[in-house]
């Protein structure tokens, strides 16, 4: 009778399921972490350690999380967990940006939908609604962030609208007041006529926009050279609405200009035969083509420098309805910004509506006219166009300039228009309203880049900071090097006010620390509303008369708020965090946003950056590299991915991607992550099954282990070095590729494959099996800890499967301290050769299996022929065990022509032979001694001996 030997074989046993069920598992683990107080345990455990502080860049509390939030916060969590497991105290305090336009805009939308005027609402009531709105979304986002597995101080986050935070913002502004860095001035700023406020560069995005273009004649009334008398200078502009603000025309002093006579024109041309036009030599041909001029002659040639002193008249000087409103001289002025790229070689200058325009006007004493009101309509005093709008939304939502047509008609009326058209170009838009912006010179509050050497300090701080990737340094350096003064005022309602008093007669800013301290104390007790609800006497005290001082009503730029977070989180927040931060980490757009404002604020008040290192990541695109949008239907919601697949799949996508560049995500990419995850999970499951019942009494010292196990320990040593270097570099995608390869190739396809026989069939006391189980225990320990920062839920699940009932957590464990003695480069080189040999054998067997001449590799006993000069150390090794065959015959000599070989492994040939003997009913090897062991005729000698000793291994 044939005996059933199944009960004598060690078979893997584990409750760790093959199918993860992450959407159900993860919430249970989150609840467990909360129940055991994981965050507090980490803090107590880490007391006295070196602190690692990744200071959180605050997201806006104004809606559900998007995939970019998931990328950012998961990456932060991975880095924090890595640093914690390296033995540091990684205390993470999440935070939120609560002030500013993004939130105020949401409240305004509610009023607009109800047909109400926001400006008619009591400001304090409006601010209360903004505060409540932000508070609601903080709680929503907090839950969504935690669902991603983020560990942090969620019970004590920071918010910019907390009274203590608002008070510190007031104090930080006060430092610029006291050091003279804050001043009021009229400069051109990017202005939103929709939101009725100035915007920061970080609140601006660029989109294609269609603009009306006009070519306009400016008659010469005072000529610097006789050749210019009676001619007209031609300008080209894409902003016809700025023509009422024209006060000068710029030329390029190093360019060459010609005076052209128009000889003939096509039908419909607005050019007049016989007239003379002044144009750039390089651009004239295109201008003539656009204006339908069919023949023209050069009358004179002039260097740009010869135009200095020429005076023009405004085209509308003679307009009958202008009532003399444009009867002022328009000087020709040299401008280095004038180029031959497009246009006519002349730039019309409206000092109130352009950076270059304003600077040129200031240099030549030209006053800035007020022509456009905050809502984008012309002032009543503007001739011809009073009350008209410079910008409006069309029926399909696109924006256009409704005054462009009236401007064109007014130019035609005085014979000034040479041509008009349209151009599509990149143009600044508000990132909130999506409306185009205008440049508008208005009185605003600025922080000087020159006073107190702020620019120089910021540039020096950039060079002292570690930038990851390194090119981030160049990007922010050029921004700071060339940026204008920082406009910190906004004409809004929700935010921290500019808590400044200005003398009504002299315009002098009050610089009194006692006043600043009183304001800050009131704000800390009652919030920033105190500035609006308190009489000025509360702050001024007894030293000043309120009737002499004006209380500023503008709101601080929200980027100043977030730029101060280092002051009220790291320095004075009560979390016990050090200053400066170890790391700031945000998207690459924050070179002009939070990294930038934090740098300027800190350098202006403390002389250095608030961070030691800055890491930037790219943006998230769809699988085809397109920007995500609802209209394209390609938006990937992190909530949906988590609900269907689990947060660990999103985390795997983040750390498996090169986030120094833009990342892609979509159904196929997620599917790939699921497949990778499954292979990693199966590795953990196999180890758990193989370690069933493992005890310390089984553990074997590495010195007593076979070479194969010592090679695995060497690989663990190499992987440990990669893990620690990746943590240092904040770069994980290459590491995770190595980890996956280690699990799939080195372990599953090689080590596990070879040692399955020993694990299943050797006696429990056998040294080879003890070595295998010892190494698998070390593998499990290292892998679960290495995976813990990345796959935080799965690593915890595996830890608990190995330690059922434990009150601990994998996240309370450090990375395993791999002994230096495990490193053996000579052994690694030896096994590289052995694995090459195994590949050749496996390749030969695959051909036989494909031809169905064998089913299992154990049916084979191949002949391996090594070339006489082929060097390989096989001492003490069983090649049949390594190749998983029943026998291998090893020979040296010339490789037969019929032998199987691989081109990349010269010097090895394999000749297939079938194994002789019978199949062992326990280990399935085909061996000659099967049937020769009394009482166990169906077993080989090894298996018969194990069964005789008690059966199961």
UniProtKB/TrEMBL annotation:
Record: residues binding ATP: 630
Catalytic activity: tRNA(Ile) + L-isoleucine + ATP = L-isoleucyl-tRNA(Ile) + AMP + diphosphate
E.C. number: 6.1.1.5
Molecular-function annotations in GO: aminoacyl-tRNA deacylase activity; ATP binding; isoleucine-tRNA ligase activity; tRNA binding; zinc ion binding
Key word S-adenosyl-L-methionine present: no
Coiled coil stretches, renumbered: none
Xref: SUPFAM superfamilies: Anticodon-binding domain of a subclass of class I aminoacyl-tRNA synthetases, Nucleotidylyl transferase, ValRS/IleRS/LeuRS editing domain
Alphabetically ordered keywords of this record: Aminoacyl-tRNA synthetase, ATP-binding, Cytoplasm, Ligase, Metal-binding, Nucleotide-binding, Protein biosynthesis, Zinc
Domain of life: Bacteria
SUBUNIT field: Monomer.
UniProt family annotation: Belongs to the class-I aminoacyl-tRNA synthetase family. IleS type 1 subfamily.
Protein name: Isoleucine--tRNA ligase
């Amino acid at each position: 009778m044939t005996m059933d030997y199944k009960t004598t074989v060690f078979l893997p046993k584990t409750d760790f399921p093959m199918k993860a069920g992450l959407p159900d598992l993860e919430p249970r683990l989150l609840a467990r972490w909360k129940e055991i107080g994981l965050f507090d345990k980490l803090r107590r455990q880490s007391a006295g350690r070196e602190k690692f502080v990744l200071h959180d860049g605050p997201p806006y509390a104004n809606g559900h999380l998007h995939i970019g939030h998931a990328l950012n916060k998961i990456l932060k969590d991975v880095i924090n967990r890595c640093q914690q497991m390296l033995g540091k105290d990684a205390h993470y305090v999440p935070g939120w940006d609560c002030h500013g336009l993004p939130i105020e805009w949401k409240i305004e939308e509610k009023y607009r939908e109800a047909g109400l005027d926001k400006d008619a609402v009591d400001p304090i009531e409006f601010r209360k609604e903004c505060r409540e709105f932000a508070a609601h979304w903080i709680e929503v986002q907090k839950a969504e962030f935690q669902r991603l597995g983020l560990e942090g101080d969620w019970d004590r986050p920071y918010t910019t609208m907390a009274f203590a935070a608002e008070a510190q913002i007031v104090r930080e502004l006060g430092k610029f007041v006291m050091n003279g860095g804050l001043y009021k001035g009229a400069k051109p700023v990017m202005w939103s006529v929709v939101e009725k406020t100035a915007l920061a560069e970080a609140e601006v995005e660029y989109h294609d926009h269609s603009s009306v273009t006009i070519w306009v004649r400016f008659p010469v009334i005072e000529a610097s050279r006789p050749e210019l008398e009676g001619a007209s200078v031609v300008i080209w502009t894409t902003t016809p609405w700025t023509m009422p603000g024209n006060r000068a025309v710029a030329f390029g002093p190093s360019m060459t200009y010609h005076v052209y006579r128009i000889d003939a024109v096509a039908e419909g041309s607005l050019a007049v035969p016989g007239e003379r036009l002044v144009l750039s030599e390089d651009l004239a041909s295109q201008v003539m083509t656009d204006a339908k001029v069919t023949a023209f002659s050069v009358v004179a040639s002039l260097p740009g420098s010869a135009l200095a002193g020429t005076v023009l008249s405004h085209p509308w000087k003679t307009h009958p309805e202008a009532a003399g409103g444009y009867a002022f001289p328009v000087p020709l002025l040299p401008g280095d910004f004038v180029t031959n790229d497009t246009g006519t070689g002349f730039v019309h200058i409206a000092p109130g509506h352009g950076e270059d325009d304003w600077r040129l006007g200031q240099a030549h004493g030209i006053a800035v006219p007020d022509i456009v009101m905050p809502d984008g309509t012309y002032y009543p005093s503007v001739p011809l166009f009073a009350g008209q709008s410079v910008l409006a939304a069309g029926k399909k939502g696109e924006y256009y300039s409704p005054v462009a047509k009236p401007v064109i008609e007014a130019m035609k009326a005085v014979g000034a228009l040479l041509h008009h058209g349209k151009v599509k170009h990149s143009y600044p838009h508000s990132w909130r309203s999506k409306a185009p912006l205008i440049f508008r010179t208005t009185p605003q509050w600025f922080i000087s880049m020159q006073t107190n050497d702020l620019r120089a300090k910021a540039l020096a701080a950039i060079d002292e900071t570690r930038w990851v990737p390194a090119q981030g340094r160049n990007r922010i350096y050029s921004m700071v090097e060339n940026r204008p003064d920082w406009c910190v005022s906004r004409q809004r309602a929700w935010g921290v006010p500019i808590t400044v008093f200005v003398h009504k007669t002299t315009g002098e800013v009050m610089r009194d620390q006692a006043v600043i301290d009183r304001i800050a104390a009131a704000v800390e007790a009652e919030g920033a509303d105190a500035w609006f609800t308190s009489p000025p006497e509360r702050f001024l005290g007894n030293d000043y008369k309120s009737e002499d001082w004006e209380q500023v009503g503008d709101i601080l730029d929200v980027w100043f708020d977030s730029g101060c977070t280092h002051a009220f989180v790291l320095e004075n927040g009560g979390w016990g965090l050090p200053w400066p931060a170890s790391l700031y980490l945000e998207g690459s757009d924050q070179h002009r946003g939070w990294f930038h404002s934090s740098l300027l604020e800190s350098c202006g008040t403390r002389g250095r950056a608030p961070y030691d290192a800055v890491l930037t990541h790219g943006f998230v695109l769809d699988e085809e590299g397109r920007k995500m949008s609802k209209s394209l239907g390609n938006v990937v919601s992190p909530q949906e991915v988590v609900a269907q697949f689990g947060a660990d799949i999103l985390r795997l996508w983040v750390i498996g991607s090169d986030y120094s560049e833009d990342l892609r995500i979509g159904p196929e990419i997620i599917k790939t992550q699921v497949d990778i995850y499954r292979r990693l999970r199966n590795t953990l499951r196999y180890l758990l099954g193989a370690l069933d019942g493992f005890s310390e009494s089984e553990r074997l010292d590495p010195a007593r282990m076979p070479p194969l196990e010592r090679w695995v320990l060497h690989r663990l040593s190499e992987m440990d070095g990669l893990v620690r270097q990746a943590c240092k570099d904040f770069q994980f995608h290459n590491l995770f590729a190595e980890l996956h390869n280690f699990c799939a190739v080195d372990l599953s396809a090689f080590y596990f494959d070879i040692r399955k026989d020993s694990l299943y069939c050797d006696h429990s006391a056998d040294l080879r099996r003890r070595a295998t189980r010892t190494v698998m225990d070390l593998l499990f320990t290292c892998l679960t800890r290495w995976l813990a920062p990345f796959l935080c839920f799965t690593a915890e699940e595996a830890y608990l499967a190995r330690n059922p009932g434990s009150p601990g957590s994998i996240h309370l464990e450090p990375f395993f301290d791999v002994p230096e003695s495990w490193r053996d480069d000579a052994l690694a080189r030896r096994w590289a050769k052995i694995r090459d040999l195994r590949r050749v054998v496996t390749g030969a067997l695959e051909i036989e299996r494909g031809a169905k001449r064998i089913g299992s590799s154990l049916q084979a006993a191949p002949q391996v022929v090594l070339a006489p000069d082929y060097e390989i150390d096989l001492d003490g090794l069983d090649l049949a065990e390594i190749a998983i065959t029943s026998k291998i015959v090893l020979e040296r000599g010339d490789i037969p022509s019929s032998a199987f070989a691989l081109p990349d492994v010269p010097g090895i040939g394999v000749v297939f032979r079938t194994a002789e003997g019978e199949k062992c009913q326990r280990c399935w090897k085909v061996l000659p001694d099967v049937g020769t062991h009394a009482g166990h005729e169906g077993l080989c000698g090894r298996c018969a001996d194990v069964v005789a000793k008690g059966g199961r291994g």
